[in-house]
Structure formats: structure tokens, C-alpha cells
Specification:
The chain contains 22 helices and ten strands. With 583 residues, the chain is an alpha/beta fold. The protein is elongated.
């Protein structure tokens, strides 16, 4: 997966690698210049060669500076682009997923994948990855140079490398396990934090602060323990890894000194070997940190790949067609739906012609909201079919299906943005300010919006914090109306409004004759003016008809009417003198 993202910005890595190889070559060349100065100038007395060698040192320093800038800038830029594309693709992947995906993966985990894990990918494809490549190239280059200069003395530092390699591999295995656990626990901790911040008012209202803090402490303590374990591994291994190169340098000096005294090698060669032995330490000393970063990135990569491997339950056909006319008929044809072995809807059929209104009633859990989910194609029907304009929605593009309807849900979600931008959500690029004002007027929201400091440009809090339930519902209705879809769905979306405001909004909606409507509610007042009303019971249509027809049947609808208006009718009788007098 990472290779695909790296290839999108391949030219940065190519040029960065040229700079890396050039700067590494100059680093390896520097001890050769020093060797020549010692052997030719200091020992040999050829002072005319001093200035050319000094110019070589200057050239190597300037060249290294330029190439170091080139490689670090380009690798960092490449890492930025990789992380940016990973985050963008993750968000795009989330929007393609069906609802079951979000049941399997909690919000905290998904947030951790987009933020923390993508940042770990940034590290390994940017600066840290560059250092790993540079350290490897430098190590190989130095070994080759030492072997070419003197095979015998080169065996001394080379003998220490297998010991370091074994230690590094053992450390990497331990870190790989602990980083996987840290990544999992980070997601769980993020979830707890997100839930507590979002639900802070509920926690306070139920005086549950101590319980939630205790729950957070347990997660935080486990996260802390995992990080301590990782730090312990590093604390034990790093000092040993850093100590071995010091022994290696001492051995090179001892063996090389004896060889120089015995004229086995030149003093310049000994100086060059000491520089190589000294410089070879930095790749080894940084190996612990680099492996730390690499292990963390590998664990994050696995988590991200796990998310990308998930497939949506809802897939668009390759030959799916676009809906040409949004002002068309919606039909449920013998629709049944089963979720996790539980039947939610059974043999539901109805048809809504363009401009007509369907009312849906039923007690909690009878499948009312599932009808909305099926229309939006968040789930596919188990049996039967849903048709828009006579076309099965499974044969339409998902965009067409969701463009067809505009939904006001029970659980209102408002973004932390301006009121205007929240209303424009369905038509961000095309909706004018005058259309926003019109939608707010129709939803009877203009009055309270104008009183808010900043008006339409006022930024509302996350999820509408600071607004009352009725205000949030009116903004949500304005957002749905502004979309101007073929079908408006009101899913128990006026429950927080007073009767007068609800009636006014219903009149505004009823006046939109070019738009079909589905009104789902518990109040008789919400659905009584619908062209047809269906009453659900146990996922089936128990009754259907107009308001008057259903009252005449004296069934479930009539019972609901009596429960809601019985006392009101008795009060009217008393006021009209038709009942007992007021006491």
C-alpha cells in the first residue's frame, strides 16, 4: 500500500535519493582526503599538496551542505504528500462504507487511524525513512572503503557488526509487538476521551464524573504501562548498542596502532580508519530510535491496511445509471428486511406519487426509521424492491439515490461551522445566500437566527451546542428544504417544537406541491393531513388510509388519537357546557 503512495510523488524521492547518495559519497570521501594530508603533507613533506587537499575539504563541505538540504527537504515533502494522501483516502473510504462498518469500528479507533497512524506513516516515508536509507548506504559504503584500503584492519570493525545486528533484530521484534498493543490502546483511549468530551453535559447531569474519570484512568494507566514497557526495552538495549561501537573504536586503534608502528600500514591510513570507525557509530547509535520509528510505522500500516481491507455491504453496480428526473414516484414493492437474524420489515408496500404525502406511524421499534435507511440505501432490502421512477434503486448510482431525497432525522447533527454553511450542506457550490434565507424563513428559523450575534454567519458549537432542541430542528429542516430534492423525509423531526410552530412549518411543507413527502411521527398532528397514512406494527402495515378512514376503523390509529386527544375533547365538552362543570 505504501509503495502506491510513494509512487505518486516518485520524483521527489528520486531527486532526494540523488542528494542522499551524493552527500553520503562526500562523507565517505572526507577521511580519504585526511589520509592524503597525513601521508603526503605531514609525513611525506609534500607541502605543495596541502592547498589542493584543503580545497577538496572545502568542496566536500559545501557540496555536503547543499545535498543534505536537497535530500531532507524532498524526503520531508514526499512524506507530507504520502500522509496527506493516506488521510484523504481514509476519509473517502469511510464515506463509502455502510452502517455496519461503523458498528464494527468505533469512532475513537477511526480517529486514531486518520490522525496518529497516518502521522507514523509520515515519519517513515519522510525524515526517519531517509535516515534509515542514509545509515544503510553509509554503513555499506564505509565497509567497502575499509576493505579496499586494508582488508586485515577492516575485519576488526566488521567483526562487531553481527553482534549489533542480532541485538537490533531482537529489539525490533519486541518493539513490533508492543507498538501493535500501543496502537490498539491509543484508539481505545481516544474513544473514551471523545465520548466524554461529547457527552460532558450528560455526565454532569447524572453526576457520573467520578465513574467516567475512573474509566478514563483505567485506559490511561494501561496506555501508560505499554509505553513504559516500550521505554524499558529501549533503556535496556540502547546503552549496550551504544557501548559496543566504543569497544570497536578502541580495538581499531589498538590493532591499527600496532600495524602502523610495525610499518604494516601508513599513519594516514590509521587516521582514516579511526574516522571511519568514529563515523560508523552514528548509524549504529541511531539504529534503536530508527527501529523504534520503523516498528511503530509497521504497526500503524497494519491498522490502516485493515481499514482499507473492509468492504461496504452496499456496492454500486458497474453499469448503474443516473436518475434523470428527480420529480418522480417512489414505490416500496413487497419489501422485507432482516438485520442480524431479526426481521425488521415484512412485506411492506406503498407508492408515493410526485407531490403527494405519506404519513407513517407506529410505536418504537416497528421499523419506521428503517424505511428511511432503505430509501437512502444505507441497507439493501432482503426481499422485494424499492423503485424510484420505476427503476430499482440497486440499478441507480448511489449519488442519484441520495440526491433524490432530503432527510430530517431524529438525531440532528450540525457541524461546528456558520449557520449559513450548515444550511448549504446539500448544495455547497450552488446555493445562494438568498436561497439560504428563503429556506430559513420556510423553517421559521429566521427570527431566532437574526437575534444571534453574527446572524447567518454566526459559528455554532459542535453538534449545535448552545442551541435549543427546537432551534436545531428548525435549522435541520431549513437544510433539508434548501436541497430541493424530489422527496422530503421528516423522521420525527418536529418533536421539540411547540404545536403552533409545528403547524406553521407543516403548512409551508404542504405548500411545496412539486416535492413528495414522507412524514414519520408519533403525533397525530404531524400526519393527519397526509394523502395516505400507514400504521406499522411488528414491521408490517397494520392499517392504512386517510386520517378520517383510520379513525372510522377504530384500530391502532384511533387508539393513538384517543390517547393524545381524549382529555382535550373532554375539556372542550366542559367548556361548551356539554359535560360536567368545572370544579
Amino acid at each position: 500500500m505504501i509503495r502506491r503512495y510513494v509512487m505518486r510523488t516518485w520524483w521527489r524521492y528520486l531527486l532526494g535519493s540523488v542528494g542522499l547518495l551524493a552527500s553520503t559519497a562526500l562523507d565517505i570521501w572526507f577521511p580519504i582526503i585526511t589520509m592524503n594530508i597525513v601521508d603526503e603533507v605531514i609525513v611525506g613533506g609534500e607541502y605543495d599538496k596541502l592547498w589542493p587537499n584543503l580545497l577538496c575539504i572545502l568542496a566536500a563541505g559545501v557540496g555536503r551542505m547543499l545535498f543534505q538540504y536537497l535530500k531532507e527537504f524532498l524526503y520531508d515533502m514526499g512524506g507530507c504528500h504520502v500522509a496527506d494522501n493516506v488521510r484523504r483516502d481514509l476519509m473517502g473510504h469511510f464515506y463509502k462504507m455502510s452502517r455496519s462498518f461503523f458498528k464494527r469500528n468505533n469512532t475513537g479507533e477511526l480517529m486514531a487511524r486518520v490522525k496518529d497512524d497516518a502521522s507514523k506513516i509520515w515519519d517513515i516515508t519522510g525524515f526517519a525513512g531517509m535516515l534509515i536509507i542514509e545509515a544503510s548506504c553509509y554503513l555499506v559504503g564505509v565497509i567497502v572503503c575499509m576493505l579496499l584500503l586494508d582488508f586485515r584492519l577492516a575485519l576488526v570493525p566488521i567483526a562487531f557488526l553481527p553482534v549489533l545486528g542480532v541485538m537490533v533484530m531482537k529489539l525490533e521484534k519486541k518493539l513490533d509487538v508492543v507498538y501493535g498493543e500501543i496502537s490498539e490502546e491509543n484508539a481505545a483511549l481516544t474513544r473514551v476521551i471523545e465520548e466524554n468530551i461529547s457527552g460532558v453535559r450528560t455526565v454532569k447531569a447524572f453526576c457520573a464524573e467520578n465513574f467516567e474519570i475512573e474509566k478514563f484512568d483505567k485506559r490511561n494507566e494501561l496506555y501508560n504501562e505499554l509505553n513504559i514497557r516500550q521505554a524499558r526495552y529501549m533503556a535496556v538495549a540502547e546503552p549496550v548498542i551504544n557501548f559496543i561501537p566504543k569497544i570497536m573504536q578502541a580495538c581499531v586503534l589498538l590493532v591499527g596502532g600496532i600495524m602502523a608502528i610495525n610499518h604494516g600500514i601508513s599513519y594516514g591510513l590509521l587516521v582514516a580508519f579511526m574516522q571511519y570507525a568514529s563515523n560508523i557509530v552514528w548509524p549504529i547509535e541511531n539504529m534503536g530510535w530508527l527501529l523504534n520509528t520503523l516498528s511503530s510505522a509497521i504497526a500503524s500500516h497494519r491498522k490502516i491496511m485493515k481499514i482499507f481491507a473492509e468492504k461496504s455491504d452496499i456496492e454500486e453496480k458497474a453499469d448503474a445509471v443516473n436518475l434523470e428526473d428527480m420529480r418522480c414516484t417512489l414505490e416500496f414493492r413487497n419489501v422485507s428486511f432482516t438485520l442480524e437474524d431479526t426481521q425488521i420489515l415484512k412485506d411492506v408496500s406503498f407508492e408515493i406519487e410526485n407531490g403527494k404525502t405519506l404519513g407513517i406511524m407506529g410505536s418504537t421499534g416497528t421499523g419506521k426509521s428503517m424505511i428511511v435507511n432503505l430509501i437512502e440505501r444505507f441497507h439493501d432490502v432482503s426481499e422485494g424492491a424499492i423503485l424510484i421512477g420505476g427503476i430499482d434503486i440497486r440499478d441507480l448510482t448511489l449519488k442519484s439515490v441520495r440526491d433524490y431525497s432530503s432527510v430530517v432525522t431524529q438525531d440532528i447533527f450540525l457541524f461546528s461551522d456558520t449557520i449559513k454553511e450548515n444550511v448549504k450542506l446539500g448544495r455547497k457550490q450552488t446555493l445562494s445566500d438568498s436561497a439560504v434565507n428563503y429556506a430559513l424563513d420556510k423553517a421559521h428559523a429566521s427570527e431566532f437566527v437574526k437575534k444571534i450575534t453574527g446572524g447567518y454567519d454566526a459559528v455554532i458549537g459542535e453538534r449545535g451546542i448552545g442551541l435549543s432542541g427546537g432551534q436545531k430542528q428548525r435549522l435541520s429542516i431549513a437544510r433539508a428544504l434548501s436541497k430541493e430534492a424530489g422527496l422530503l423525509i421528516m423522521d420525527d423531526s418536529t418533536s421539540a417544537l411547540d404545536m403552533e410552530t409545528e403547524a406553521d412549518i407543516q403548512k409551508e411543507i404542504a405548500a411545496k406541491k412539486d416535492m413528495s413527502k414522507i412524514i414519520i411521527g408519533h403525533r397525530i398532528s404531524s400526519v393527519k393531513d397526509a394523502d395516505e397514512i400507514i400504521v406499522l406494527s411488528d414491521g408490517q402495515i397494520a392499517e392504512r388510509g386517510t386520517h378520517e378512514e383510520l379513525l372510522a376503523k377504530k384500530g391502532l390509529y384511533y387508539s393513538t388519537y384517543e390517547a393524545q386527544y381524549g382529555n382535550y375533547k373532554e375539556a372542550l365538552k366542559v367548556m361548551e357546557g356539554g359535560g360536567e362543570s368545572w370544579q
